[in-house]
Amino acid sequence: MPETLVLGAVAYDPKVVTIWEGFKQYFASRDLSFDYVLYSNYERQVESHLAGAFHIAWNSPLAWIRTKRQAEANGQRVAAIVMRDTDQDLTSLVIVKSDSGIKTIPDLKSKRVAVGAVDSPQATLLPLSYLRGQGLTPELDFAVVYHDLLAGKHGDHIGGEREAARALMAGKVDAACLIDGNYLAFAAEGTLPAGATRVLGQTAAYDHCNFTVGPAAPEQLVIRFRELLLNMSYDDAQVRPLMDLEGLKAWREGRLEGYRALDKAVDEAGFYDAKGRIAAANYRY
Amino acid sequence: MMRREESQRRTIDIKDLSFERGAHLLIKRELNALPVGSSLGIRGSDPTLSVHLRAWCRAQGHDLSLNGDSGAAGVVAWITRGSASSGRWRDAQSTGRPDPKADAAVLNRPQPTWGLAARGARVESGGPEFSFALSDKEEVWADNVPKLYAQAAAAQWDPASAIDWDAEFELPVEVEQAVVQVMTYLIENENAALLVPARFLSQIHPHFREVMQLLAIQIADEARHVEVFTRRATLRGTELGLSTVSGQQSLKTLLDEPDFSLASFLLSVLGEGTFLNLLWFLEKHAPDPVTRQVARLTARDEGRHVAFGLSHLQYQLALDPLLRSRLSLAMNRRHDTLASTAGLNEEVFDALVILAAGEWTPEAIAEGYAKVQELQEEMHSDRTARLVKLGFPAEEASKLSALHTRNFM
């Protein structure tokens, strides 16, 4: 059995190094030898994970979908074991300017809709699937305007959504898609002035990132890893800065029902095929 | 805003206030009044309320139930208070009191993790450790620091208006040159008097707020002094004077002293103390009104610098009488270091004589010379008196005073 549990994560921001160095120290002080490797994009991370390069992945929801599809195709077993409280029950929004003539979803016909990066679950895949569910086919019934900042990062970088919101305020597009948390954040930072926008539509709740255990993961170390995470308390001054950086107040058990909507969205967009191979023609990372 | 108690569950009505306009403040205030785990019903008419509530509660660690049980009509959502906001302050530390006169206001050993927090603030635990080398009250404090700071703040003057730069005077060329030489010498000394406290300022734990503020003003005083001495030196378009090796060697020993108390002893008590005599001399004997005004204003500031140095050392000596022998050693060490140097440069000494003489007659020169000798005696006697104030026996004080650098500062 290997003595060190190795995690893979995507370096979507320099703070990622601070986060995992912090976790490494936290686990080391509790007798779990832990290390991490960083990838520049989720696609390479998923492929390396299933090839056995490391044990546990900190996966975006889209990376989870791909991992699961590929693993099933290969006859491998993977599991989503832990997620943040802030990964659960998210929603995405379609917003328009308050003074816009667009009052209902069907009014978006023939309009321009800003989305995030082509691989963003929250700012692209899920809201476009939502609009499809409301009877509008992307690119056919309305134009999709992508804001491809840092593709391969699955929308982890906030920049794409901010660009979409700015495009809406600048009148370059008629509607914009973004996650509910950023709608609040963009109001606070002034990107979206108070009262300047309204919500046209909201997706059903879905889940976001998770720790995915891969086929080569040593069971005992994974058990210890899971236990240490779930025992982290926001009351503990030593771990609180780490939890603040990672944006959570408590770790939760992993659950799968929150990924159904994205699974469907991936099929509709033709992003991955059933075996987890990249099918989207416009995806460069 | 309206509050209601319904079936022992509290609700608030925030009307049409949105999260884009501060709704979270009212909600937070109500939640803070509730125990962890209890619920608050939200009424409100902003169309984005439920969307923003969801994101806000998630980030704050509160549970949210939208359109929850219909126990209360018009309630958009029920929030169950999470523990995160109270958990953050569980081990918070109190950090003394802002008023230095209050009980337990200024503590002996503030924690490195209190960092830059205002004295008296409640500091979240788990913060970064700052490394303030001077974090022991004994090393920096004096009980009259708050008073000295208040005096310093009140006594600030504007070089542009406090001095009558246009005052009319005419000096013989050599006398003007002598004034310029003295100014040149003063500037390099004030550069040292600015940099020495500046180096320690960044090492002082901000818990000792008044010391930090007083040193900051002291540094600003020196900045002004450098300005007015430069301005007087160049008033008549004369080239600046000479800077000697021995002068700089003497000042360098001040910059090289790594201990705050010893540096404050050498610079403030002995150096600036001796300078006070020099500035008073210039105020009295300078041949022109501008130099006399400059000397008067700068002497007033220097007096405060000396007062803080003395007060701090008296405070520390009361707690640690062994410090006295370290002070004495520091003087001896500096004397030994400078033993092989020339001391006060000849140009400065001669310039002081000429400046006090005011003209080129044998009588005037003799008079100027006598005045400078008198100045040196005054310097020695006042320095001795300050050493006596620090508890040195009179004889030892006099011997120590004689060891002071011939460069004055």
In short, what is this structure?
By secondary structure, chain A is an alpha/beta fold. Chain A has helices at residues 15-28, 42-50, 61-74, 121-133, 159-169, 180-189, 219-230, 240-246, 260-269, and strands at 5-10, 34-39, 56-59, 79-84, 92-97, 112-114, 143-145, 175-179, 197-202, 210-213, 251-253.
Description:
The complex is a heterodimer of chains A (285) and B (409). Chain A has 285 residues and is an alpha/beta fold. Chain A folds into two domains: 5-87 and 207-269, D-Maltodextrin-Binding Protein, domain 2 (3-Layer(aba) Sandwich); 92-202, D-Maltodextrin-Binding Protein, domain 2 (3-Layer(aba) Sandwich). Helices cover 35% and strands 18% of the residues of chain A. Chain A has helices at 15-28, 42-50, 61-74, 121-133, 159-169, 180-189, 219-230, 240-246, 260-269; strands at 5-10, 34-39, 56-59, 79-84, 92-97, 112-114, 143-145, 175-179, 197-202, 210-213, 251-253. Chain A has a six-stranded mixed sheet with strand order 2-1-3-10-4-11. A five-stranded mixed sheet of chain A has the order 7-6-8-5-9, with helices on both faces. In chain A, helix 2 packs parallel to helix 3 (61-74) and helix 4 crosses helix 9 (260-269). Chain B has 15 helices and seven strands. The longest helix of chain B has 31 residues, at 289-319. Chain B is elongated and about 105 Å long. The model of chain B has no long low-confidence stretch (mean pLDDT 93). Classes of the chains: A alpha/beta (285), B alpha+beta (409). At the A-B interface, helix 6 and strand 9 of A face helix 2 of B.
